[in-house]
Amino acid sequence: MLPLEVITLAVYASLPLTCISTPLTLHTSLQAVAVQVHARSLVTVCCVYLPPHNVVSQQDLDTLVDQLPTPFILLGDFNGHSTLWGSDVTNSRGRQIEKLISNHCLCLLNDDEKTYFHEPTRSFHSLDLAICSPTLLPLLNFTVGSDLCNSDHFPIVVSYADSGGAIQYPPRYLFQRADWGNFIQLADITESMVSTADITEAVQNVIDCLINAANNTIPKSSPRLRKFRRPWWNEACRDSRKEEKKLWNIFRRYPTTENHVAFKRAKALARRIRRRSQRESWINFVSSITSSTSS
Questions:
Q1: DSSP annotation of 84
Q2: Does a structural domain hold residue 243?
Q3: Do you know which InterPro entries this protein is assigned to (predicted)?
Q4: Which residue from 53, 82, 100, 136 has the least number of CB within 10 angstroms?
């Protein structure tokens, strides 16, 4: 029988070419997946899920950590409570995680911010943890998102402290916008460039000439990630989403039954508006397709 819980680790396919990811094979009975990502340096990222009612042995946790190449970041829903990461009490699972951190000299990135919303009791807890190797601690920032994104867990974000949160992509030449006439004039390979005793110097002279001509006549793409427009997003979607976020923030500050009901109504309304807008946008798009529409 397959487990009811499934854990995945997704690596964004459009990461810069300098970011290379390699999946790792883990020999463990725990629900865990890992990948090595080469960004500024080679870092192992492991995601784990520990079901709240399952018995997890300390040896299984130790074995998992021992398999992770350092430096690593261990992320997941540990379902443990501890005052170390902002809980009011410490339970047995929390003591297990505390022992894991202590035995392996690891560092906890979490602050006291809550990462989980328990709807039946309208209470907030810290269940999702980010644990890392000591060498990574001064390099990383830990934040918790403010939007549940239709889940009961808030997204946790681990980023480089000096990254500014933006992914930089290698710029590329936009050849369709090039000024080829000017390029031909600037890319003039003269005899003096190649009439040197050193062939390496001659090749470099030609390369420098061509690159200089390209940089002055061919525009480059932006290094920032391009945002894709959602054709169905309209003013009604924006306003309903804004109202939903406003009532959610009120409920987070004052978790009363009245505020919870108001938020759930706003959330349901915003979802209906988005679905209606998506449906209408798709109908309009399909209706616009003709025999002359390009693929």
A1: G
A2: yes
A3: Endo/exonu/phosph_ase_sf, Endo/exonuclease/phosphatase
A4: 53
